[in-house]
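Box 3.1 — From sequence to structure: MFS transporter
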Amino acid sequence: MTVSIKRWEPENVIFWLSRGRGIARRNLWLSIFSLHLNFNIWMMWSMVVVNLPAVGFLISGQQQFLLVSIPPLVGALMRLIYSWIWSWVGGGLWLGLSTLLLLLPAWGVGRVVQDISSPFWQLLLVAGLCGIGGGASASHLSNTSFFFPKSEKGLAMGLNAGLGNLGVSVAQLLIPLCILYPLFGARAGEPQVWGRGGEVHFVWLQNAAYIWLPLVVLIALACLLYAHDLPKLRITPRDQLDAMRDAHTWYICLLYMGSYGTFLGFSAAFPLLARAMFPLVDASPYLFVGPMVCALSRPLGGWMGDRIGGGIATVASNLLMALGTVGVYLSLPSAASGGSFWLFLAMFQLIFFAAGVGNGSSYQLAPKVFLIQAGRDAQRDGESLAQTYARGGRRGASAMNVSSVMAAFGGFVIPKAFGSALSWFGSFLPAFAMFFLFYLLCCAVAWWQYSRTGAAMRC
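Predicted structure (token representation):
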């Protein structure tokens, strides 16, 4: 089972160089692999839903947007539990146990998609099970933050989240390929007839879920055998409530929701949005690109936060997302033109890139802001360095957990906003206008609180 550590002092240079760095890096990579798999499971549902009508499921466009909005919603709710339970169970042990839970959605989705007579409530149920994978970030990133000194937190969490988030892109790349072949033979079930327009062929839609089953077992065992448990922190819901009383928790929540919510929401909604706006264009070869760009740019955001300041990088990322939203608006079909798919695709890549930078830069604000705050309080109260680090780290972890929970709701809001805009106005334009104004609000908050010269928490 996992190894328990009784003493951990990453800010002690001798301890860090002689022992700490190697242990921290091992746990970082185990967390990356586990988080990557959680994102594979979390977002595979969006690729399944886009194929359901073609294999015979009778669901409307609005129902499809509802189905892809459920996993982010459940993921956000799961983070309420994941955000503190890891600190009681142990970070390493929870890595293994939470990974094993992914067997439920992988098995459930594989079973349900084989029966086109499955009622809509069953589709909603398995969509909710996929949300289990959404809880992982709340525990993985908080646990990882305690392994590294303040000077390396941004890059470490950027790598953890960025390569973990890459699971969305990998799922969107692999699933369209793996459903074309009988990878698991007759035991996995019969093929379905896929038809759209004049194109008809067999698919094995259950493969979208079953391909993850062996990886879940392998990665869970690796975490259980080789991960480490740091001294128990015992974060409780009360700590979360205490963090919620601090205004900086809500500023960081807003900023992280703007970037991370964008990543989740557009990753889930983009396949349906592209098909709705450009029905004559096959967008499936490009679906994985945006999430991949976002995931790979997240470590850049963490690095920029360490070097030039999280506030400055967050302002820049939100400006780019606002500009990208305007570009998407200009690319859409209208009464006067058929729109431009390639401009549409390019602007979404810009939004995904900026969201990745914002993910890394805004999330690493939490531990830094609260360590600065704890240091100022320590000068007044006469605390030791160890006490200050523990108090600031605890409050920062609680704030990160709250931010992670709230940001995941963005993954629900974006697909739901598109579905509601389509239902109420017959157009997606009101949803894009709302996103544009929200990005401008995030720019203003990041500049005023964390990047302007006179900001109290400039970092």
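Summary of the box: The longest strand covers residues 192-196.
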